[in-house]
UniProtKB/TrEMBL annotation:
<dbReference type="InterPro" id="IPR001830">
    <property type="entry name" value="Glyco_trans_20"/>
</dbReference>
<comment type="similarity">
    <text>Belongs to the glycosyltransferase 20 family.</text>
</comment>
<protein>
    <submittedName>
        <fullName>Trehalose-6-phosphate synthase</fullName>
    </submittedName>
</protein>
<dbReference type="Pfam" id="PF00982">
    <property type="entry name" value="Glyco_transf_20"/>
</dbReference>
<dbReference type="GO" id="GO:0003825">
    <property type="term" value="F:alpha,alpha-trehalose-phosphate synthase (UDP-forming) activity"/>
</dbReference>
<dbReference type="GO" id="GO:0005992">
    <property type="term" value="P:trehalose biosynthetic process"/>
</dbReference>
């Protein structure tokens, strides 16, 4: 039998991606996205195993140990990538859970592949977890895993966290076989969401679709209490602060500023190239500001970093084409020889380069149409030890609830976007500090370690009660926090 682990994370992706170079040689690189940014420091510090996909179709490589973690690759065939990953996960669930900002597609073979692949992840977790161990399942790609895993291993503590928004009840109701998703999630003892409303929507649906009787943040299923609660995710503040304090990173920030045009004010966007991120609306607003003369190419520059993402999915290819066309148009119309108003970087960067950009930026523009959290916003705040810089932030990012002194904006409203960007550009040093300080306190007091310990301690308490046969009793929040021994 293979080694077993007290703590196992299960996510669609491993923290590293397998990369094939042009000469066919293979290597590993950090995987894209906020899930990996958030979880990697936790698993590294806590030790344990991580089951996930390598990002490449084909047989899974052998499990290996790295950085204090045991990585257990789960293989996806080319068909699985097509149907489970690009199809059901990113063509159906992703758009639906993001307020259907793109039309979700519903296909039966995608759903079948989703179920089959979820079973494979559940089997991997069942194999890896020690008796009575803890398994933490992550995100929308694996919502059936908790129930499948409980069937295989009833001894385990099972937690689930959804990194993306959970949709309003009416939207969720559109999902074919929607009750299966709820039953899948209810296999966990604790289901975590980014926002309280998401937990409420989920609980309400267990009543409406499964005939259960949710009470406050709990629902009893098969004699177990399942708790649904918000645990807003965060970042590794220490990592960002250390990079921001590094003289080499600071020198890089100064170099970037000089190269971008000396005293031009720097606007910055950093996103995966995803239609949820509002990149087109941002460019439209910036283009209009240039057109009406509110800003000029002589005094402002926008750097837009767009991380390549899901590039085989049609909607993402089309988005890329539209974004690049708009960047070209703006630069063509308002640029000059040797100086353009938009620098567009379609590439991944290392952490030091990103933090240097955060330090260099006068205004960080984060305008998703819908976002579970948005860790870039928190990274920008954590990097600004000088209490300077301004954050323009969409009201529809989970982070807005925690960062109310940002320049909050409705990204669907171009006029409002223009207003927020202009206000941010005009904020003097004192206003910047007044807005930045409370945001920095919030992010520092609620970092990723606190998020993980809040979740895992709550999970421990709930599972213990379920083990003691107390699960059928609905416990209130205080009982849970204090051991729930009634
Ligand atoms: P999402 O999870 O939807 O991609 P988040 O903002 O929550 O959005 O997380 C994105 C993460 O990816 C952040 O930790 C950010 O630093 C990182 N990131 C974003 N763009 C890049 C890039 N071009 N290169 C490397 N890392 C990036
Ligand atoms: C978001 C999702 C993650 C996903 C990441 C990158 O953060 O919540 O689950 O891993 O985007 O997307 P990808 O499809 O490349 O894994």
């Amino acid at each position: 039998m293979s080694d077993s682990y007290e703590f196992v994370v299960v996510a669609n992706r491993l923290p590293v991606d397998e990369v094939t170079a042009e000469d066919g040689s293979r290597s590993w690189a950090r995987s894209p996205g906020g899930l990996v940014s958030a979880l990697q420091p936790i698993v590294r510090r806590q030790g344990g195993a991580w089951a996930g996909w390598t990002g490449q179709p084909g047989d899974a490589p052998e499990p290996f140990d790295t950085d204090g973690m045991h990585l257990h690759p789960v293989g996806l065939s080319a068909d699985d990538v097509d149907r489970y990953y690009e199809g059901q996960s990113n063509g159906t669930i992703w758009p639906l859970f993001h307020d259907a900002v793109e039309q979700p597609t519903h296909r039966r073979p995608w759903r079948q592949a989703y179920e089959a692949v979820n079973r494979r992840f559940a089997e991997a977790a069942a194999l890896l977890a020690a008796p009575d161990g803890t398994v933490w399942v992550h995100d929308y790609q694996l919502m059936l895993v908790p129930a499948m895993l409980r069937e295989l291993r009833p001894d385990l503590r099972i937690g689930f966290f959804l990194h993306i928004p959970f949709p309003p009840v009416e939207l969720f109701m559109q999902l074919p076989r929607r009750a299966d998703i709820l039953r899948g999630l209810l296999g966990a003892d604790l289901v975590g969401f980014q926002r309280p409303l998401a937990a409420q929507n989920f609980l309400q649906l267990t009543g409406r679709l499964l005939g259960l009787d949710p009470q406050e943040e709990h629902v009893v299923v098969d004699g177990r209490t399942v708790t649904a609660r918000a645990f807003p995710i965060s970042i590794d503040v220490t990592e960002v602060e250390e990079l921001a304090a590094d003289p080499a990173v600071q020198a890089e920030a100064r170099r970037m500023r000089t190269e971008l045009g000396g005293d031009r004010r720097l606007l910055l966007g950093v996103d995966r190239l995803d239609y949820t991120k509002g990149i087109e609306q941002r460019l439209e607003a910036y283009g209009e500001l240039l057109a009406d003369g509110t800003v000029s190419n002589d005094d402002v520059v926008l750097v837009q970093v767009a991380t390549p993402s899901r590039m085989r999915v049609k909607e993402y290819q089309e988005l890329r084409a539209r974004v690049e066309r708009e960047v070209g148009r703006i630069n063509g119309e308002y640029g000059a020889v040797g100086q353009v108003p938009v620098h567009y970087l379609f590439q991944s960067m290392n952490r030091a380069e990103l933090v240097a950009l955060y330090l260099a930026a006068d205004v960080m523009v984060i305008t998703p149409l819908r976002d579970g959290m948005n860790l870039v916003a928190k990274e920008y705040v954590a990097a600004r030890h000088d209490d300077q810089g301004a954050l323009v932030l969409s009201e529809f990012a989970g982070a807005a609830a925690e960062l109310p002194t940002a320049f909050l904006v409705n990204p669907h409203d171009v006029e409002d976007l223009k207003r927020a960007i202009t206000d941010a550009l005009h904020a003097d040093g004192a206003e910047q500090a007044e807005r930045m300080k409370p945001m920095r306190t919030q992010v520092r007091d609620n970092d990723i370690d606190k998020w993980a310990s809040d979740f895992l301690e709550t999970l421990g308490t709930i599972s213990e009660d379920n083990d003691k046969g107390l699960g059928g009793l609905i416990l209130d929040g205080d009982d849970l926090r204090h051991g729930g021994n009634r």
